Amino acid sequence: MQKIDDLIKQFLAELDYEPILTMLSKLKSGKKLRSKLLLAIAEENETSLKLCAIIELIHLASLLHDDIIDESRLRRGAKSINAEFGTKNALMLGDILYSKAFYELSQINSHFAGIISDAVVKLAMGELMDVNLTQYFNTDKEAYLKMIYHKTAVLIEASARCGAILGHLNEEAFAQYGKNLGLAFQMIDDVLDIKNDEKILGKPAMSDFKEGKSTLPYIYLYENLEEQDRAYLQTLFKKDLNENEKEWLKTQFKEQKALEKAILEAKAYAKKASQAIEKYDNNKLNDIIKAMIDREF
């Protein structure tokens, strides 16, 4: 992963503008799931490492824009770039990361460029879907699934597809692996937002609901509640919850087993991911699935 970080720094150092590198140094690079996935499918070489760096630049850009949209003050336990440097700087840094990624992509191969640029269009659509879904308490599971596919799964799917091309493997099988892994990954993220505390998450617990996101656990909770409790749940939507309200939610999640149901759904998608590539018997890819499901942040 250090080689990928070094490539990202090299790409941005070429732009010869110090504020970019200063803000980059404050960006938390995260788990690099997409890079680990691509390199578990394809051999490590100049092209695969460059593709990883490009994909990570795109992912970082999307996180910058996501934090601006959500007005997030924290990212992985540290000040978000918009909180530390201001919204304008964060927005322009995101644009620079996207643009530099596309420039580097244009130097590699039109096939890879087509796959990744298509994923970025869908990713941006996912952000728009997410924004529109915050306008009301969404109880439509299919709308939620469509949104997380676009917002999260498409770039993971594209990473797996690119790895398969580099490794001369079945492109569609690995695309299915990436797509289903991405859906499961986001579902677990949505569970952890409720289940864990601020110390582990790096942000306040249940912040998704306050931001207007009725994620899968909330959809399942709503489905299981009586009419009166459904109405009360909707009054909490987008609210800065007090301790009593948080405790009510925790109790309802426990009694209605909504978190367990969401975790089972994530595991079902993880199983689909595993089945898509089972004939390849790739232990690294199965380990990625296990690590993604059995995580705390």
Detailed description of the structure:
This protein has 297 residues and is mainly α. 76% of the residues lie in helices and 1% in strands. It has 16 helices and two strands. The chain has helices at 2-13, 18-25, 33-41, 46-70, 81-85, 87-106, 110-133, 141-166, 171-195, 198-201, 207-210, 216-224, 227-236, 243-256, 258-276, 283-293, and strands at 74-75, 78-79. It has a two-stranded antiparallel sheet. Helix 4 (46-70) packs antiparallel against helix 6, helix 7 packs antiparallel against helix 8 (141-166) and helix 8 (141-166) crosses helix 9 (171-195).
Offer a few descriptive terms.
two-stranded antiparallel ribbon, 1% strand, 297 residues, mainly alpha, 16 helices
Q: Spell out the helices and strands N to C.
A: HHHHEEHHHHHHHHHHHH
> Helix tally?
16
Overall shape: globular
Low-confidence stretches: none
Strand order of the largest sheet: 1-2
Q: Tally of extended strands?
A: 2
What is the typical, i.e. mean, pLDDT? 95
Helix content: over 70%
- Main beta sheet: 2 strands, antiparallel
How widely separated are the two ends?
Answer: 19 Å
Helix-strand category: mainly alpha
